[in-house]
Amino acid sequence: MNTNMNYKRASEWILAEEQFDPKLLGKTESIMCQGNGYMGVRAAAEEQYRDETRNCFVAGTFNKADETEVTELPNVADVINLELALDGEYFYLTEGKIRQYEKYINLKNGELVRSIGWESPRGRQYHLRFRRFVSLDHRHLIGQKITVQPLDGRTNIKIRTGIDATVSNSGAGHFQETQKRFYDNRYMQYLQATTDSKILFNINSVVSLKNKAGSCNQQAEIGMSRRRVFGDYEIEIAEGETLTIEKISTIYSTRDNDYRQVPREVFQQDTLAEIKRLEEHGYDRLFAGSAVCWDQYWERAGVEIACEDEMDQLAIRFSQYHLRVMTPFHDSRMNIGAKGLSGESYKGHTFWDTEVFMLPYFIFQFPEVAENLIKYRYNGMSGARVKAKAGGYDGAQYPWEAAWIEDGEVTPEYGDVDIVTGMPQKIWTGQIEQHITADVIYGLWQYYQMTGDKIFMEKYGFEMIFETASFWCSRFEEGNDGFLHINDVIGPDEYKEHVDDNAFTNYMAYWNVNKAIEVYEELEQSNAELWAELRAKLNLDAYYCRWKQDINRLYLPLPREDSVIAQDASYLTLQEIDLSKYKAQDFVLGIYRDYNAEQLNGIQVSKQADILILFFLLENYFIQEVKVANWNYYEPKTLHDSSLSLSTHCILANDIGKRRIAYELYQKLYHTDMGPYMNSSDSGIHAAAMGGIWEAVVLGFGGLRLLEDELRIRPALPDSWDRMVFSIIWRGTRLRIELTKGQVEIEIIGEQQSFEMIEICGTKYELKQYLVVKY
After folding, report:
1. Annotated active-site residue in 494, 497, 695, 756
2. Percent helix, strand and coil across the chain, each rounded to 5?
3. Strand 414-417 relative to strand 704-707: parallel, antiparallel, unpaired?
4. What is the full DSSP assignment across 59-107?
5. Is the pLDDT of residue 419 over 80?
6. Out of 1.50.10.10, 3.40.50.2000, 1.10.10.10, 3.40.30.120, which CATH number does the structure's domain 305-677+686-701 have?
7. What percent of the chain has pLDDT over 70?
8. Considering all CA atoms of the chain, what is the largest pairwise distance in Å, rounded to the nearest integer?
9. Residues of 644-658 as b/e, b for ≥16 C-beta within 10 angstroms?
C-alpha cells in the first residue's frame, strides 16, 4: 500500500509524513490538527495549494449561512497564511524540487513542524522550517515561527502575511466584514460578525523578523482588500544566514464569557493590548508555557504500554491528544463535534458519540470536564422539551444533532445522493433515531456513580432523568399482543430505518424509566424537600404512576433458542447476501456503490455495532452465552462502516475471550485515522474513534468497568503487551493502576477521599493506599 506516513518515530511521540503529495493534503491536515478545546486549526500549510482545506473553528460559535441550511461552526478568518518569494521565486512544494521533507505533530507538546530542503525552479537551494502551536496555556493564542536559510548565495526575501477572511465553509459564507485596522504599521486587527447569530470575532496578528544581527522589525507595507488585511515585508540575507519570522495571532469572540456584554471599543483595545504583551514574550517563551500545560495533562492522564509494536502505544497517545484538543474544557455551553474541531463535516454538531464513546474518558480522568459536557445537555433541556412537544410527546427528547444550547434539533433534512434515484437522500435520524435520549442519561448516571456528585444531581441530573422517562412513556405504543412497543425508529445501525422494537432502543428506554422510578423513590426517602419541589415542577405524581404501570409492559426482545436476540422486529427475516466483498474493502460505505438506503433496509447487513453495544453498556443484563451467540451472528454481518463500531467489537471480543480478534480490531480501530490510508481523514478526525481507542485500551484490555456503583477490574492484556499503567479518579481519589500478566497493582495518589471497595477478577477488596492482587 502506498502511504506517505512514517511511524518510525513512534517512541518519540511523533506522527510524521515523509513525502509531500499535493493530492493527499487532507490526511495530515486532519490528523495533525491543533487546538485547545476553545479553537481548532487544521494543519494546512502556510503557503496555499489547490486541494487544501483551510479551517479554523471556535467552539460554540454556530451560525446559519442561509435559511435553507442548518446551523454550523463557521470557518474563521485564516491567520496561518504566509507567502514567501525567494529572489523573485515563490515558494511552493509543487514547483522546483524537494530535497528533504518531513511534516510531523509532536503529541507530547502539541507542536506542528515542517522541515524542508527546497531547490527552486532556477536551481537555488534553501532550507526552511515551519513551527506552529495552538496554546494550551492561553486559549486564544496561535504561535508561528518560520526560519529561512539560503544555502548558495545572498537572497532577497519578500513576505506577505496577514488575516484572510476570504475562506468559507465549502462555499457557504458566514461572515460580514465589520472592520479592519493596522495599528502602528505592525498590529493587524480584523473584526467579522456572523450573519445570523451576530457573534463578533476579533482577530489580531503581529509579525516580527530577526536576522543574524537581531531584531529587524520593519514597518509593514500595509495592504487591505476585500475581507483581507496583510503586511508586506522585504529583507535581504547572506548565504548561510537565517531569517526568523515570528507571527503571533489571537482569536476572540463575543461568545466568550469575558466579552459577551463588552462595548466594541473596549473589546478592540483589550485584545490589541494583549497581542502587544504576547509579542514581547516571543514564540519560544509562549510555546514553553503551552508545553508545561501539556506536561501536566500527560502526567495526569497518560497511559503507558510496554508492548512489541510501538504503534499500539502511539495510538493511545494520539487518541488522548485529540480528546484534549477537541474538547471545550472551559465552557459548559459547548460540547464535542463528530469531527472535533478538525473539519467541516457534520458541521460541528454533537451526537450520541459524546456520551457513549468520549464521555467515559473524561468521567474516569477529568470529572470536572465530564461535568461540563453533561451540563451542556442540561443547558439544552429547553430544546429537548420543544422537540418532544413537536412530536406529540411529553417530557424531554434530546436532539439527534445538537449545536448551540438553544438551537434544539439541527439535523439536516437531506444528505448525499441516492445512487439509484439520483435524488438527495432523506435524513431520518433527526426524527426517528431516538435512543440518544437514553444515552444522555446513561452518561449522566455513569458520571454520578463515578464521582458521587450529589450536588450536581440535585441541581441538574434528577430533573434530566425524570423528564426523559416521561418522554419514553409517552413514546410507547400499545400493541395487539398486550405489550407496549417503540415503533418506527432507527437504532445504532443506520442501515436499518423505520424498524420496530430495535433492541438497543427498547432496552435503553427500559433502563432509563427504571432509573427514574429508582431515583424518585430514593428521593422520597432521603430528600423530601427536593422531591416535593420536582414533583410540583414536573407533575411527577402522574408520571410516576405511568412509569410504574408501563415499564413492565414494554416489549424487550429476548434470546431465541440459539440465544440470538433480534436486532429489531424484522432483521432476522431479511434476505442474507454474501458480504465478503464489503468486509474486505479498506474503505467504508463501499456497499452504497451497489445498494441504496431502501435496499439496505431489506438485507441482513449492519453498518455498525447495534445490539452488541448493549452487552457493553448493560452487560449485567445478559449472560455470557447470549453475548457469544450474538457476536457470532452479528459480527459477520457488520461492515464497520462507522468509526463508532470497532471499539465496541474490540471490547466485546475481549469480554467473550476472543483476545486475538480483540487485538486485531484494536489495530484496525486506530488505523481509521492514524493508519496508512491516505484519504481516510480528509473531512476531519473521527472523534468517536478517539474516545473508542481509549475505551478499547482501558475498559477493554484493562478490563476496567463501572457497573452501577461498583468499580471492577478484569485485565485481558494482549499477548504482545507486558504491562500497562494508567490513572483514574474514583470518588475524588486518584488511583494509579498498573497491570501486568497475572497481577493488578493499585496505588492511591494523595489522600483517600472516601472508603471504597473494588472488585478485581471476581473478588472484592478494600481500597487501601497500596494494593497488590495476583490473578
Report:
1. 494
2. 35, 25, 40
3. unpaired
4. TT--B-SSTTS--B---PPB---EEEEETTEE--TTSSEEEEEEEEEET
5. no
6. 1.50.10.10
7. 99
8. 89
9. bbbbbbbbbbbbbeb
CB atoms within 10 A of CB 475: 23
Q: Is 494 a catalytic residue?
A: yes
pLDDT tens-digit map of 533-585 = 999 999 999 999 999 999 999 999 999 999 999 999 999 999 999 999 999 98
Considering only CA atoms, give the Rg of the chain. 27
Residue 418's pLDDT band (cuts 50, 70, 90): confident
| Angle between helix 540-551 and helix 462-475 axes, rounded to 10 deg | 60
Q: 659-674 vs 687-694: helix axis angle to the nearest 10?
A: 140
Q: How far is CA 194 from CA 175, 191, 266, in A?
A: 4, 10, 20
Rounded distance, CA 263 to CA 409, Å? 32
Show me where the domains of the chain are located: 5-301, 305-677+686-701
**Domain range 5-301, CATH architecture:** Distorted Sandwich (2.70)
Please state, for a pLDDT cut of 90, what percent of the chain lies above it: 92
- Residue 127 is predicted with a pLDDT of 98
Name 219's Cβ contacts closer than 8 Å, sequence gap at least 6: 184, 185, 186
* Contact indicator for 198, 205 with CB cutoff of 8 Å: no
Burial of 15 (0-12, 13-18, 19+ CB in 10 A): buried
Grid cell for residue 748: 492511591
Long-range contacts of 275-280 (CB under 8 A, 24+ apart): 275/187, 275/204, 275/205, 275/206, 275/248, 275/249, 275/250, 276/187, 276/206, 278/138, 278/141, 278/248, 278/250, 279/206, 279/208, 279/248
